[in-house]
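Please go through the protein record below and explain what the tokens say about the fold. Record follows.
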Amino acid sequence: MDPAPLIFLAALAAVFWFLLIRPQRQRQVAHRAMVSELGVGDEVITAGGVFGRVRSIADDHILLEIAPGTEIRLAKEAVATIVSKQNEPPPDVGERGLP
């Protein structure tokens, strides 16, 4: 039996792993770490594009204030990005008002 097809399949599997599977796993690990760092008062953006501030955190969901007096219950996994932390100082503003 010729080993060339087996070498080609192994190389194809390695390329598939490094281009598709590995980066996706790294994104999943980074997202889990980001969700575990959520704190009350953090401003976040959800996967649906909703901006809000975290008001309370439970095991599997958060309470998000999207407008004064309007809160929604949301799965933690639906948080896409933390916009700002409550305890972080605002970025320095330059002479022309640009960061």
Summary: Residues 8 and 51 are 48 Å apart (CA to CA). The first strand starts at residue 43 and ends at 46.
